[in-house]
Amino acid sequence: MLTIAADILILGGGASGLLAAYAAAREGASVIVLEKMPRPGRKIMITGKGRCNFTNVKPWDAFSRHIRTKANFLRPAFYNLPPEVMLDFLEAQRLPVVVEHGDRAFPSSYKASDVVDALVGAARRAGAQIQTEAEVTDVLRDPADGSFVVSCRDGRTFSGLRLVVATGGLSYPRTGSTGDGYRWARQSGHRLVECFPSLTALVPKGYKLTEVAPTVGQVAAKVLSGYDPGQARKATPWQEEAPVLPPGYPQPAGHLDRALPLSEFGRSLCGIHLRNVALTLVVNGNEVRSETGELDFTDGGIEGPVGFALSRDAVKAIVNGGKVRLLLDLKPGVPPEELQARLKSLWAEIQKDPRSRSGTIRSLLKVLLGKLMPWELVAPFLQSAPAILSGRKDNVRIDFSALAQALTAWPFDVAGFVGYERCVVTAGGVSTDDVLPKTLESRLVKGMYFCGEVLDIDADTGGYNLQCAFSTGYLAGLSAAKSL
Questions:
Q1: Cα–Cα distance between 87 and 265 in angstroms, integer?
Q2: What is the pLDDT, as a whole number, of residue 1?
Q3: Count of CB atoms situated within 10 Å of the CB of 367
Q4: pLDDT tens-digit profile of 351-384?
Q5: Does the residue 238 lie in any domain?
Q6: Residue 242 domain flag
Q7: Which residues lie across from 104 on neighbouring strands?
């Protein structure tokens, strides 16, 4: 079959790949993007629950504090395509944008598909070709001229003078992110920082029914894939023998599949949304980090902005064998003495109410809690919070000190986390020590560039990760074109 040649081949048509294609093609280079899915930008389509928080417009000093790896590595890429320029770029593609609370930017339509259409349209108008359903199987170097030869599963072959690896990480594998770039990076001598899920649901103990027998189909899939559950904890995401996700991918230790059914306790919490709460991460008895904001109990576990913010450190601790606990503060900022006084005042009001005369202490406690939290939270709170009633059956009373403590430090021991099947971003990847920050060219392989989630770059939720992808993609494409 005839080999199709171009100046630059870009592996992956996601956020970083599309910006790389646009930047390179605008410089006059011939560009081919190889995307294995039926359409590009599949992962962008699900960001922000389909609303697409595509960037955060904070200046570098504030933005960099939300990068969880070596922030200085990203600085050159950030300044080549800062967030405000990204906004201008999308508006130039006739996509109006809006900036909301927390400096988060969205398309005015709140449709992620509009962002994808704008990126694809810009790349194509600049002259880039986008080949879909082009699953790359091999990446080789031609010893004669140093060009890169890429083979696809359907038999197509492409060659390019420069190669941009923009394959993404491992998160949401059904969008095409199955760690392909790690294999090619390792084969060419690059070091890899061990991967683990980040910005993911943390699963409290007792939240899921973890002792569920696998279905016949699941067993068959694992047998066919050659997956050995006993080796899962030893395997790393870039091992060549690891089967493609899904099924049977060797997730990190502590992984609890999101598909596991909820327990009764989990069902009682699932769907509850909390505002203005604080969440503290405790690892091996030591407080690590606290965040204040919104929290969601979902079919996965504890999510929402504050849950996601703590998930990276929590997952890393669990993978390394640490004991993880979350403390939920339903009344952040209220001093203990003030809270206790408030509780006693509310209790006095309830006792004076004529409707309380026939109520038991336990039933009236529910009324009290209903004044302090969403009603649907009362039952699971009473089920799992520390004891707040004391005394004998004929003399039960409320321990207001214990109640105040439970309201401000409701403990959830963490059993595990949702893995790559539903995490927002992958932590780890190609070591940035092997990549030049000013161009994103490999220090080891001339003409090979890396960008986006395949690199060991990850950040907090709030538009930071997509901006990292856009900025690194733009710089990689620009650098590759200028090097021709």
A1: 44
A2: 67
A3: 17
A4: 999 988 888 898 999 999 999 999 999 999 999 9
A5: no
A6: no
A7: 56, 100
The count of domains in the chain is 2
Report the distance separating Cα 21 and Cα 199, nearest Å: 28
Q: What is the CA radius of gyration of the chain?
A: 26
Residue with tokens 């790949």, as numbered in its chain: 17
**Are the C-beta atoms of residues 366 and 378 closer than 8 Å to each other?**
yes
Report pTM.
Answer: 0.89
More confident residue, 119 or 238: 119
What is residue 396's predicted lDDT score, i.e. its pLDDT?
85
Joined tokens for residue 329:
């503060």
Residue 333 located in a structural domain: yes
Q: Which of 147-161, 164-178, 199-213 has the lowest mean pLDDT?
A: 199-213
Q: Which ranges of 244-374 does DSSP label H, i.e. alpha helix?
A: 264-269, 304-319, 336-352, 361-370
Question: Which of 380, 402, 423 marks a domain boundary?
Answer: 423
Q: What is the mean pLDDT of residues 211-237?
A: 33
Helix or strand or coil: residue 210? Answer: coil
Phi/psi at 443 (5° precision): -75, -15
**Assigned domain for 240 exists:** no
Buried b (16+ CB within 10 A) or exposed e, 318-336: bbeebebbbbbbbbeeeee
177 & 100 share domain: yes
Strand 104-107 and strand 97-100: the pairing is antiparallel
Give the model's pLDDT for residue 250: 63
Percentage of residues in the chain having pLDDT higher than 90? 82
Query: Which CATH number does the domain housing residue 76 bear?
Result: 3.50.50.60
CA neighbor of 48 nearest in space, from 123, 142, 128, 112? 112
| Domain with 283 in it | 200-214+249-423
* CB 314, CB 202: distance < 8 Å: yes
**131 with 79, same domain?**
yes
For residue 165, report the phi and psi dihedrals to the nearest 5 degrees.
Answer: -95, 110
Residue 286: count other Cβ atoms within 10 Å of its Cβ: 8
> Do 314 and 179 lie in a common domain?
no
Q: Are 160 and 274 within one domain?
A: no
Q: Is residue 5 pLDDT above 80, yes or no? A: yes
The three-class DSSP label of residue 290 is strand
- pLDDT digits 0-9 by tens, 119-143: 999 999 999 999 999 999 999 999 8
Same domain, yes or no: 288 and 347 = yes
Indicate if 39 and 148 belong to the same structural domain: yes
CA nearest to 372, candidates 412, 334, 401, 343: 343
pLDDT in tens, 473-484: 999 999 999 999
Residue where a domain terminates, one of 398, 423, 448: 423
281 and 137, same structural domain?
Answer: no
Strand partners, 165: 11, 450
Q: Is the pLDDT of residue 219 over 50?
A: no
Same domain, 81 and 127: yes
